What we know:
Layout: E1 2-3, E2 8-9, H1 21-32, H2 42-63, H3 71-102, H4 104-108, H5 112-124, H6 128-142, H7 152-171, H8 178-188, H9 194-198, E3 202-217, E4 220-229, E5 235-242, E6 256-264, E7 273-282, H10 294-307, E8 314-325, E9 336-340, E10 343-346, H11 353-360, E11 365-371, E12 376-383, E13 386-389, E14 400-401
Antiparallel strand pairs: 1-2, 3-4, 3-6, 4-5, 6-7, 8-9, 8-11, 9-10, 11-12, 12-13, 13-14
Helix pairs in contact: 3-5, 3-7, 5-6, 6-7
Amino acid sequence: MADLAGPASKCTCPSRKFPCKHALGLMLADAAAPIDAAAPPDWVVAWTSGRESRAATAETKAREPQKPVDEKAQAKRRQAREERVATALDELDLWLRDLMRRGLAAARSEPYAFWDRIAGRLVDGQAPGLARRVRALPGIAAAAPAAGAPRREEALALGIGRLALLIQAFRRLDALAPEQAAAVRAAIGYPVTADEMAARPDRSDEWAVLAHAVEDEDRLTARSLWLVGRRTGAVAQIVDYGAPGSPLPAVPAAGQDFCGALAFQPGEPPLRAVFRDGRAVASATGSLPGGTSVAQALDGFAEVLACAPWTESWPLRLTNVRFGHLPRETPEAPAFGIGDATGCLALRADPRLPALVAVAAGAPVDLFGTYDGFGLSPLALVADGRLYAVPAQDPRPVLMRAA
């Protein structure tokens, strides 16, 4: 059944997509040749009546006066959460000390349940951001060596060190600037409320949409949309979450421009943002705004680490760089690099790298990607005035010409 006024639909099929293919087929059939009017069956009447009843209830609640905010109760809830988080971080601190006392070799032999136990305790203590980092550690410890990636022992030590830094930063929140304190809270897993985002200032610009990146995160699908302001040069990351297989909100495609305003979440340095008012338009140019040399990009990454040393990766924009082969002393050493007269960066192993190199054809290009201190993961490049975005979900070595 389908209600074209909604539009809304319902189907008995087990599809997790909405609307399902049967509802879409019904709507398309009516659009091609309007279906004759007839008395609806009882099961359709029950569905439409339920929708009307729910809509009326929602409208009635919207007209009701809002209850005044109980500031004392709100402060009490905040204090209770602070205490739960502090207790969970104390347990994590003791767990990390025991882990380091035993040594990284012993940690690598632990089963997944060993890591999941403390991660579950962090979830109970309302620190989901730290729980995500802990659950990533066994994968780091067991990962096979890859080109452009740190050694397992080094990567594991880095992950543990970032957790320890966050614990110490949380214990010193009062000594941090407000934006730095907000960044610590975000890393631990404190949500940003709608009221907080409503109070954030707008940042208007012509935002070039560079790339989409999709990854699995805590049983959810996380899609990152990367944008760069053409006037301000600011980089923004807009993240949407959804259940596996479910549709995510519609966003501008790579190669388009979003003309309008974004609101950045609290934190220093700013990166995560949400859409405000604006619209997507065709891009007039495929340039990469705000590109720098390799040396300047590394200096910027160092500044980010000085401000937030628990940062796992950061976007870099490079201009007039060339691809090249790197000398390989071991099979795990990176095979490809990108560089200019000021320096060189290793590229993370990726089956799409040969396609990127082929598009560049030996000429200088502008490159956008995320850097973790060891290797750069390319997300888009600009060659001959055209933007080529790396497909978000296609593992084959192909590129999508976006503009």
